[in-house]
Automatic annotation (TrEMBL):
Catalytic reactions of this protein: 5-methyltetrahydropteroyltri-L-glutamate + L-homocysteine = tetrahydropteroyltri-L-glutamate + L-methionine
Record-given protein name: 5-methyltetrahydropteroyltriglutamate--homocysteine S-methyltransferase
Biological role: Catalyzes the transfer of a methyl group from 5-methyltetrahydrofolate to homocysteine resulting in methionine formation.
EC number: 2.1.1.14
NCBIfam families xref list: PRK05222.1
Organism field: Zea mays
Gene transcribed to yield this protein: LOC541942
UniProt cross-references to Pfam families, sorted A to Z: Meth_synt_1, Meth_synt_2
GO molecular function, one term: zinc ion binding
Amino acid sequence: MASHIVGYPRMGPKRELKFALESFWDGKSTAEDLEKVATDLRASIWKQMADAGIKYIPSNTFSYYDQVLDTTAMLGAVPERYSWTGGEIGFDTYFSMARGNATVPAMEMTKWFDTNYHFIVPELGPNTKFSYASHKAVNEYKEAKALGVDTVPVLVGPVSYLLLSKPAKGVEKGFPLLSLLSSILPVYKTLTSLSSVTAYGFDLVRGTQTLGLVTSAGFPAGKYLFAGVVDGRNIWADDLATSLSTLQSLEAVVGKDKLVVSTSCSLMHTAVDLVNETKLDSEIKSWLAFAAQKVVEVDALAKALAGQKDEAYFAANAAAQASRKSSPRVTNEEVQKAAAALKGSDHRRGTNVSARLDAQQKKLNLPILPTTTIGSFPQTVELRRVRREYKAKKISEEEYVTAIKEEINKVVKLQEELDIDVLVHGEPERNDMVEYFGEQLSGFAFTANGWVQSYGSRCVKPPIIYGDVSRPNPMTVFWSKTAQSMTSRPMKGMLTGPVTILNWSFVRNDQPRFETCYQIALAIKKEVEDLEAGGIQVIQIDEAALREGLPLRKAEHAFYLDWAVHSFRITNCEIQDTTQIHTHMCYSNFNDIIHSIIDMDADVITIENSRSDEKLLSVFREGVKYGAGIGPGVYDIHSPRIPSAEEIADRIDKMLAVLDTNILWVNPDCGLKTRKYTEVKPALTNMVSAAKLIRTQLASAK
């Protein structure tokens, strides 16, 4: 019985690729150094799969940045602004498209379907010239072949590529991207014969209806079925007995020789290897499988289906499944009762947003076009050292608190010097916007090396939600009150919302996701109320990941949006009208859920806008009325490029063409954690200058 892996994490077990990329971008290493790290990683992955007995091993799933960008390079579909003149696309052009450079901005970045992975959106039009400009796929196939490993090259298909694209700047909005199919097929034919399809792969984990369709409606005769039974999106050990039963039912339909055991999707969405974990206790560890372990699971299922079942391996798996179901660590009856009691109310604030904004303005006394940032400030090497040494108990709690207070004071003073209106404390105490909260909530576990790629070299370490969630103690109140004591300007309390904590964690799969989300919402609600009681007048509850949780099936959209938006409202339903609630969303397609965003009933929403060519503004041009405060991002923080004041002022003017002056905020696209102060200071200086320039113009026009 054959086995297959759709794809594998690229960053390496110790994030080797991340560090090699950032060293190269900083000019500290050469292209050859970067290529050597990449070559070694690919070789180790192929060898690992071959040693495990996998028959169909993927190649071309490695990427220096993103697989869709790799396809853009393969097709030579480079936007004109990057001044590419032909030939094999090298690192300069490739990384300029991904990150921008000193003179041109990066291409748009958005979420890959319903994941936290970001891809680079192709920009196409009727005049786009396609050519075979990157031999990466063939080169990696040959590279594996030279190591004695036969692989299956993986490509983003031509139809998918076009549907993931957008019309280039200057091309009419309704341009039919699929009309370019005949233009890109010649390049695909250069790589492959594009003969008739011989196999179909299905996600049988999230595709909950697929199994029933195959077993009831049948399957094309003579075709292979690649059955994705091992979850590529989560880190729970597979229930091998259940998966084997599923495979046996499929075998009866397609035949033993046509069934291939596979993962539900690429394993790039999981952590790399459980062997590297030192923080997890043995009980929780027994419940888990990272990418390396999932490879073994796929092979074990294939062998079992072929009559070579490893009885000891299956018995250990069954014992772990039973342990997880019966563990007292998983269930908290008090939490379950509180979450169950939420049903029957929509948890809205008692006053409409217009009246609340009036009450808040009387208290906050902000200028028109108030300026703010999204939350985090640069995390310097020194700051990371302080946090690392505190965790390792190399410095005392007193020394740690003193160091963090000094960093907060520095960030507060900088914002005052820049004349920003609503301040943030910079989040120096936080390692990650989800992990930081998870560490202080019950029902969460944490890894030492459970890194997952988010975009480019950026990796996140999702917490593991294994049980019922509650908040034992306040999480952010001390730091927010400390920061507020340093300034007379409003200081935002910064929280991560329940839906984002859920969607950016590895979530328990033994109860519906909405039940876990309601539990998190109740925990955040307590924090919001404690912040308000502590004198914090502006509280931001980030829901950066609300859109990405939207199910792929349209029939399931309404149910998801109902409980997701409800979860957000739960967090702030009982606070005073004068407390201003902000939320933030980033890098996704929001236009189709704008009414759900309005239904969140936040006082102010800040939202990514600049990198997506101000797509968000088209919603308001088309007549959607928005009465709450809104801050579409005025510059892209994921690029090192520093925008001029004139460029930012031009963006603000475009916003004012569709949004009322009294609701518009001025802010960057996202948090500043990944940037350097040498980039942040001039960019924020220009942002504030632009806001003041437009205020002056508006005043003189009266």
